[in-house]
Amino acid sequence: MMFSSKFFGAVLAIASVAHAADSGCSSSSTLQIQNQGDTSSLQGCTTYTGNVQIASQTSGIITLNGVTEIDGDFVVDGATNMSSLAAPSLQTITGKFTLNNLQTLSSLSMPKLTSVGDLTFAGLPNLASLGFDGIVKQCKTLNIQNTFLSSLNGINLQTVNSVTIANNRMLQTLMFQVTSVPQSIILLANGDQFDASFPNLETASNITFRSCKSLSIPSLKNVTGNLGFYENSFATLDCANLTSVGQTLAINANPSLTEIDLPILKTIGGGFQVQNNTKLDNATFPAVQTIGGALDFYGGFNTVGLPALKDCRGGFNLQSSGSVDCTPFNNEKGPNSVIKGTFKCYNKVSNPGNAASTPSGGNGTTTKGAAALLSVPSNTMLMSMAGILAGLMIMM
Ligand SMILES: *[C@@H]1O[C@H](CO)[C@@H](O)[C@H](O)[C@H]1NC(C)=O
Ligand SMILES: *[C@@H]1O[C@H](CO)[C@@H](O)[C@H](O)[C@H]1NC(C)=O
Ligand SMILES: *[C@@H]1O[C@H](CO)[C@@H](O)[C@H](O)[C@H]1NC(C)=O
Ligand SMILES: *[C@@H]1O[C@H](CO)[C@@H](O)[C@H](O)[C@H]1NC(C)=O
Ligand SMILES: *[C@@H]1O[C@H](CO)[C@@H](O)[C@H](O)[C@H]1NC(C)=O
Ligand SMILES: *[C@@H]1O[C@H](CO)[C@@H](O)[C@H](O)[C@H]1NC(C)=O
Ligand SMILES: CC(=O)N[C@H]1CO[C@H](CO)[C@@H](O)[C@@H]1O
């Protein structure tokens, strides 16, 4: 084979361009982009090592051509006049990917993006869709707040450490395949029909679900920290596989809730709250044995059942405007019995409230307990001392 010198010349020219660009493919100082011209320094780089920032005065359309990986942070903050952002070849951002306070951004196109370090999108009132056609599957933290997004199509995480999705008023659906979230999941104040689904989620540290219309967490087994359901509009709360909550379990102010199914929940390490769910008639937890903190229930219940309860280490407050039967709980109170802390059980209360409130107009009993003394691990010596002290307190 023969090559013309003209051909070789062209090859050399391309090589030297590539070489020149290579030397600019890494920097310890942040690369500032103020207009489309400034993106040319990324164009010849397959991987750019360093942080890239689009300046706040940037306007119009910005396209990052060529680059497939940013090994660093990519931040766009306060560029209120930037309308469109594209990166046709970008697959990976290893650090932060932040889009913050971009008032006119209406188009985002990153069709090859699959992996991001920490994704934070906030204050994007005109961004209706993500433009991640390649589907982002990996992300350490995901935080999306105050956007116009109507779907998270383009994100389907197999692994993530924490998820916060809040105040996205157009967002009506979310489904993630994750099985374990080592830190937290927080979903709050999204669309009025917001349907959240975690079909494979088995464990997480802290979980808050607030103002969801429907929720599916069929595989959830353990929450090691807090688990809270607040102001949701679903009628049934179903956690068929949940066995333990490490800290507080709260089911509060869910106005449509009529049924709770936690059939195998056994252990709650902290407090247990079922409060102000105005349509909930029956709060029965067939398998709950241990409550490490206080039980604090109030509402309109006619039935409250804790048939397996063996150890409630904190106080017990049950106030109902309905006709709950306090007899089984009355029989379980006392420093050496099941319910160790301060005990209140009242029915027909006109305005039922939490443990700190004094029930009015109802019928029931209050018994001071020794909860404060029992925060130390149980041991017979301490238990009997607590018993004596509790006795003394009642005598005084
Ligand atoms: C956006 O454009 C408007 C009108 O041209 C200008 O007044 C404003 O300063 C620009 N904002 C930024 C952050 O550059
Ligand atoms: C879980 O929530 C508790 C209480 O807010 C907090 O102290 C703890 O750090 C959280 N854990 C994680 C892993 O986020
Ligand atoms: C619940 O747990 C059981 C036993 O581990 C398992 O067979 C079942 O598939 C789980 N259900 C869901 C929906 O994950
Ligand atoms: C009870 O829940 C409703 C929402 O269902 C809320 O508006 C109200 O403030 C709550 N009241 C108390 C005393 O928590
Ligand atoms: C209350 O709920 C439990 C568990 O779901 C059920 O077994 C029981 O029959 C219900 N009681 C009433 C009075 O509805
Ligand atoms: C309060 O409870 C006692 C004992 O269960 C019962 O005898 C009494 O009738 C009740 N009073 C009211 C007002 O419900
Ligand atoms: C840490 C913790 O509480 N682990 C429990 C998770 O749930 C399984 C049953 O599904 C228990 O066996 C673990 O002890």
From TrEMBL:
Instruction: Identify the InterPro entries for this entry.
Output: CWI-Assembly_Regulator, Rcpt_L-dom_sf
BP terms from Gene Ontology: fungal-type cell wall organization
Q: Which domain of life is it from?
A: Eukaryota
Q: One GO CC term of this entry?
A: plasma membrane
Keywords of the record, alphabetical order, are: Cell wall, Glycoprotein, Secreted, Signal
Query: Where does it localize?
Result: Secreted, Cell wall
Q: Does the keyword Glycoprotein apply?
A: yes
Chief localisation class: secreted
Question: What is the official name of this protein in its record?
Answer: GPI-anchored cell wall organization protein Ecm33
Protein's UniProt keywords contain Ribonucleoprotein: no
Q: According to the UniProt entry, where is the signal peptide?
A: 1-20
